[in-house]
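pinned: reference chain
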Amino acid sequence: MLLWRTTFLASTHFNLLVSQTGPFSTISQRSYSMELNNSRDSVTQGDELVNFYGNGTASAYADMMDEEVKKTIPDLKLLLTSLPDEGLILDTCVGSGHMLRWIHENHGSQKTRQLQGIDISSEMLEQARTRLPGSMANLVLGNMLDVSSQVDESCAAVMNTFALHHATAKECKTAIQEWTRILKPGGCLYVGAWEGKGDIDYGDYSPGFKAVLHQQTDIIDWMTDSGLTIVQSRTHMEEEMGMNSFYVIGKKPTK
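pinned: its structure tokens
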């Protein structure tokens, strides 16, 4: 999940306030022109993105998620009642592991179901392992945009929360197609993201770092274009940030 507190003003010029949580305390404010479209064709990825989530950021993120995970619990409850009997539950950007931990503790008779989490950051995976020790989940280093090693129709659920701002619109659409490919018939894709258009400014802490917001309607379109039926879509106003987060569950039709 994005660590920055972001406020957008609905105009062609945005006053963007970025303040850091966890160990970061610097507040910077910038006023600049931003076109009201989502046209960025590149974002920060690779080693630079990995490094961004190092140096204590993973620990601060994990502390924040102690509270943030509570916002996903209604969705996770619905998700668990909507899945086929068999199949992997895959978190494509597992982060600190809070969501898979909640699933492990609360999916009752399905506790034998295999859980897997992937993340691009080894420091994030270390945080996840503290919450998912031993055989609770298979935690592996990987990229949410590449699930080519996963067999077709092998997953009961695929999850991706607050990571799509690290991907372009084209990459998001392709990833959703791939996540749908690996879902079993009757399986569900769960996506959570920040709502909006345009770039995210990380301020002086990480100048030049590139990330982009996506609209809820676009995410839903990409999910339905991939063959999913939307079973739930909701928004949550983040009052501190002056923006919405949104959560969508899409179900793959049974054959």
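why pinned: Residues 56-199+214-251 form a domain with the Rossmann fold fold (CATH 3.40.50.150). The radius of gyration is 18 Å.
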